[in-house]
Design brief:
This protein is of the alpha+beta class. It contains two helices and six strands. The chain starts with a strand and ends with a strand.
């Protein structure tokens, strides 16, 4: 059992003492991604839709660095600042998982890093 730490310049660096992703025993676990632009380290403007799109783009880039892709995601966990944003988040999410979507949980939370509206983490298989 070898634990491999995953990182990429195509996704934001960790903003705390954690890894962006870890690959172990044939599974890839990503840390939560918010809608940070990797170039600036700032939240993208445009609200829940833009933040969801950026968070999932960041996840796609992390998975590629780990030898996987969105088609191999088996589970997602979505954290929403406001459950009233669910339908708008879900519309963007569906663009990234158009067929055979992974299992998913969605929860409302009291707060997210940097005042984000959404945070998403995934578990994926390698390609």
């Amino acid at each position: 059992m070898t634990k491999q730490i995953i990182s990429t310049d195509k996704a934001p660096k960790a903003i705390g003492p954690y890894s962006v992703a870890v690959k172990i025993d044939g599974l890839i676990y990503t840390s939560g991604q918010i809608g940070l632009d990797p170039a600036t380290g700032e939240l993208v403007p445009g609200g829940i839709e833009a933040e969801t799109r950026q968070a999932l783009t960041n996840i796609r880039n992390v998975l590629e660095a780990a030898g996987s892709d969105l088609d191999h995601v088996v589970k997602t966990l979505v954290f929403l600042q406001e459950m009233s944003d669910f339908a708008r988040m879900n519309a963007i999410y569906a663009e990234f998982f158009p067929v055979n979507p992974p299992a998913r949980s969605t929860v409302a939370v009291a707060g997210l890093p940097k005042g984000a509206s959404v945070e998403i983490e995934v578990v994926a298989l390698p390609k």
